[in-house]
Amino acid sequence: MNALSGKKLVLLGERDGVPSPAMEKVFAGTGAEVVFAATECFV
Amino acid sequence: MDLQNQQRVKDAAQTYGADNVVVILGSSDAEGSGIYAETVTAGDPTYAGPLAGVPLGLPVYHVFDPAIKACADPAAWEEHIGMMEMVVDTEKLATAVKEMREQFGKSPI
What we know:
Chain A has one domain (8-40). Chain A has 1 helix and 2 strands; from the N terminus they run E-H-E. Chain A has one helix at residues 20-26; strands spanning 8-14, 33-40. Chain A is elongated and about 35 Å long. By secondary structure, chain A is an alpha+beta fold. In chain B, helix 2 (30-41) runs parallel beside helix 6 (90-104). Helices cover 53% and strands 7% of the residues of chain B. Chain B has helices at residues 3-16, 30-41, 66-69, 74-80, 82-87, 90-104, and strands spanning 21-25, 60-62. Chain B is mostly helical and 109 residues long. A two-stranded parallel ribbon of chain B has the order 1-2. The chains are: A alpha+beta (43), B mainly alpha (109). Chain A binds chain B through residues 2-4, 6-14, 16-20, 22-23, 25-30, 32, 35-36, 38-40, 42, and chain B through 1-2, 5, 8-9, 12, 15-16, 20-29, 32, 36, 40, 58, 63, 67-68, 70-73, 76-77, 79-81, 84, 88, 109. Strand 1 (8-14) of chain A pairs parallel with strand 1 (21-25) of chain B, so a sheet runs across the interface.
């Protein structure tokens, strides 16, 4: 079973790193629920 | 960390319980990753936001932590994250977050 299965994910991405929409896509099939996702920008 | 995002993280921990929430970071520098990780475990180190003095102790990982990458869909990873993985020091990022998690986090997955 996926280690993230059943978990509530908080995704804090960064525009110049890995943005949260990319993380949402790669964890979509884990059985975890994304409860908050944000992408910060430091420019 | 953005003050509004601190509040959203705090709300998520209160709503779902700290044991059920996992925070995953996508920052590109180790120092920033460490500060994010500290904020969601020990509390806001700048004492400026809603998490000041609030040690949530959440399990927090960098997206490049091998344990987290292992959970991801390999094809989607290659398409959306693979390029960034080649240009950053993934081990340094994962370690910066791991140090905070092991020091202040309460419930690693």
